[in-house]
UniProtKB/TrEMBL annotation:
This is Bifunctional metallophosphatase/5'-nucleotidase. The keyword Nucleotide-binding applies. GO terms for cellular component: outer membrane-bounded periplasmic space. The lineage of its organism: Bacteria, Pseudomonadati, Pseudomonadota, Gammaproteobacteria, Alteromonadales. Pfam families: 5_nucleotid_C, Metallophos. Residues 63-283 form the Calcineurin-like phosphoesterase domain. Residues 1-18 form the signal peptide. GO terms for molecular function: hydrolase activity; nucleotide binding. Keywords: Hydrolase, Nucleotide-binding, Signal. One of its GO terms (biological process) is nucleotide catabolic process. Belongs to the 5'-nucleotidase family.
């Protein structure tokens, strides 16, 4: 039943009162709606139509502003690094909004998810309202689409914070299992000077896989496939409200990740959507996607000025008006952590029949780089910064010995990650290609806790390192293990363990003659590359076939990169069962989904332990031992064949010829490697530096970090 002119105040006290004094308010106890999260009902804490302005006009520009993937960043500060981040934080977005709202007082302001997790935000999870949500409220955000990381904690956490957000909360594909009713609204209608704008939300359907080890995080909920659910939601909103503009607010990547991505929805529903604002990918882009029929090739075009992702180039995009609006849809993403405020200006004009028609749309990313932080917002939430910084700086002990060779993580120049450019200088973190105490630290803690024989873990951050003599503060655990993963122990057959290892090493491209470094498969994500430790000895050969599966997870190539020599002191046996420790994300998203183990194979789950997060296990160890020593975490159990003493890469680097000369140029910062431009969230090395291929690297004009990001 339609509910209009319902006041937010009325909704807030609905549970305590039988009604409100507003005679126009209609309260239906059997409507399927509820003002707070209620089992089987749709959370509805706003009117069906939120009126932003009521001027009598014949032309109107509707402005929508959006943030995404804030990951706890109220302030432009990275607590894991204990450093200022000059293009991040709601405090900088707040400053941008002062200007934007002065120019566009009726702006519809939305956040597209992954909002309240990350950057020490978990310190405030028990607050009645999370301070990031309070910050959104203080900035008058109109709408919030929950992302997948909102479900990293008990469902009561997301319930509580959705309840306490002052605006609309929308996502069309989160449903109650018991009756398939929407958990929250599928869409929200806004009215600006008589023009109706519908905003349709989407959350990744893969949440149950990502959170499989902790089903309490999404208890009672199901996540429908994105495209079909969005089709149904749009059909419903057109039938009920016939909006003048339809906008998507999608917390999904452009390509599929266990469901439909932005490209697929945009291409097949371009005749319905006028603009799609997206998140999840941590990317920055402004593109146009052409309408296609199901199954046809998707055509997307970068329409930003000089491919800079900050302003739409109208000479590329042309005019988007009533005559062609059904043929394409524009999409935009504002990056991560408050890098930008995505903005969509939508111009409408009434025709002679009084109906609103499209005049044009224009997209832009208003960046926060070096923008002064709002003193009002900073002062209001200063306590969050103070508590987070003090917690990050809490010294637990001292580091003994270097955890990677030399004093820096980069394998060529032995320098650490550069925080301004967001990358290693030249090649790769040494701990990704060599067995180091840095990764053994994580794996051996997992082995001890899970009592496994084999442990698997990822190096999430290229900025991770531990150097002899440094103080180990709590932030170092966060930097080394930035996700809120728990630890799972499973019984796994040798055959499936081998598949798991082969799958992990698809992260690397095949070695080619003349390579003096390694490179990563295009689009590879760092967190998908696990390293294996424990009572297992193996060799990796990057000339071998890469493991492969089809879309149904049927193995099409078993791969031949991994030679397991022995496990637990015995020759490897594909038919044997081995105890394997791994993180909860890997368990639910991959191992269980691929059919390599089942729930019955789980013998340990740290969610039942007082210290349940892997990151906190590292902190617990250092605090108990007043430090951590590299010598206690040295278990040389694997090598990449090309890095052995007589391996092809090692021999080329020391050949007293062209290979060594090229390697020396890399070491001396004369040349740089190429970074995958299409993988902004996890930028990897696109090409191995090859002595036979001058296009595999480029000359560094400045011999500093900045010079290596100009290509």
């Amino acid at each position: 039943m339609k509910k209009t002119n319902r006041s937010v105040l009325c909704l807030a006290v609905l549970a305590a009162l039988a009604g409100c004094s507003d005679d126009e308010t209609i309260i239906n106890t059997d409507s399927g709606y509820a003002p707070v999260v209620t089992q089987g009902k749709t959370l509805t804490n706003t009117p069906d139509i939120v009126v932003k302005s009521q001027n009598e006009v014949d032309e109107v520009t509707i402005t929508i502003g959006a943030t995404s993937d804030l990951h706890g960043r109220i302030f432009g500060y990275d607590y894991a690094l204990d450093a200022v981040d000059s293009d991040a934080g709601l405090t900088r977005i707040s400053t941008l909004l002062e200007t934007e709202k002065a120019n566009n007082p009726n702006m519809i302001l939305i956040d597209i998810g992954d909002t309240v997790q990350g950057n020490s935000a978990q310190l405030f999870n028990d607050d009645p309202t999370h301070p990031v949500v309070s910050t959104l409220n203080s900035l008058d955000f109109d709408l919030w689409v929950p992302g997948n990381h909102e479900f990293n904690f008990e469902r009561s956490f997301i319930d509580r914070n959705l309840n306490h957000f002052n605006g609309a909360v929308v996502s069309n594909n989160i449903k109650w299992e018991e009756n398939s009713a929407n958990y929250i609204r599928a869409f929200q209608i806004f009215e600006v000077d008589g023009a109706k704008v519908a905003i349709v939300g989407v959350t990744p359907s893969n949440v149950p896989n990502w959170e499989a080890s902790a089903p309490g995080h999404f208890a009672g909920l199901k996540f429908d496939e994105e495209l079909a659910s969005t089709r149904a939601a749009v059909d419903e909103l057109i039938e009920k409200f016939n909006p003048d503009v339809i906008v998507g607010a999608f917390h999904i990547g452009r390509s599929s990740e266990g469901g439909a991505g932005v490209y697929k929805i945009a291409a097949e529903m371009a005749d319905k959507f006028d603009v799609i604002l997206a998140g999840h990918e941590h990317a920055t882009y402004i593109e146009s996607v052409q309408k296609v029929a199901e199954g046809e090739d998707i055509v997307s075009t970068d329409i930003s000025v000089e491919a800079g992702d900050t302003a739409e180039d109208k000479t590329l995009s042309g005019t988007y008006d009533e005559s062609n609006r059904a043929q394409s849809v524009k999409i935009i993403e504002p990056g991560k952590w408050g890098w930008a405020l995505a903005k969509a200006d939508i111009k409408l004009k009434k025709n002679t029949d009084g109906k609103w028609e499209m005049v044009d749309t224009t997209l832009s990313n208003v960046t926060s780089k070096n923008i002064e932080e709002s003193q009002t917002t900073s002062s209001q939430f200063q306590y969050v910064h103070d508590i987070s910084k003090a917690d990050a700086q809490l010294v637990l002990g001292l580091v003994g010995g270097d955890f990677t060779p030399g004093t820096g993580a980069d394998e060529a120049v032995h320098e650490d990650y550069d925080h301004e450019t967001g990358r290693l200088y030249s090649t790769i973190h040494t701990a990704k290609v060599m067995d180091t105490p840095l990764m053994d630290f994580i794996n051996q803690i997992q082995l001890e806790k899970s009592e496994a024989v084999v442990s698997a873990a990822s190096l999430f951050s290229d900025s991770s390192n531990l150097i002899d003599g440094q103080e180990y503060a709590k932030k170092d655990s966060t930097n080394l293990y930035k996700y809120d993963n728990t630890l799972i122990g499973i019984n796994m057959t040798g055959a499936n363990l081998k598949r798991y290892m082969e799958w992990s090493y698809t992260y690397f491209n095949t070695y080619k003659d003349g390579d003096i470094t390694v490179s990563f498969k295009k689009g590879a994500k760092a967190y998908m590359y696990d390293q294996f430790d424990g009572k297992i000895d193996f060799v990796v050969d990057l000339t071998g076939d890469s493991f492969a599966m089809d879309e149904n997870y049927t193995v099409t190539n078993e791969g031949s990169r991994i030679e397991i020599i022995e496990i637990d002191g015995k020759p490897f046996d594909a038919t044997a069962s081995y105890k394997v420790g791994l993180n909860s994300y890997r368990w639910g998203s991959n191992i269980k989904k691929f059919g390599w183990a089942t729930g019955d194979d789980v013998y340990y789950d740290s969610v039942n332990e007082p210290v349940y997060a892997i990151r906190d296990m590292l902190t617990e160890y250092v605090a108990a031992n007043q430090g951590v020593n590299a010598s206690d975490f040295t278990n040389p159990n694997w090598e990449i064949k090309q890095y052995q003493d007589n391996g092809a890469i090692t021999l080329l680097r020391t050949d007293n010829g062209a290979g060594q000369a090229l390697w020396n140029r890399l070491v001396s910062k004369e040349i740089c490697v190429k970074i995958d431009p299409d993988n902004p969230k996890y930028p990897g090395i696109l090409d191995a530096v090859n002595v036979n291929d001058a296009t595999s690297y480029f000359v560094n004009p400045t011999k500093d970090y900045a010079g290596c990001v100009t290509e």
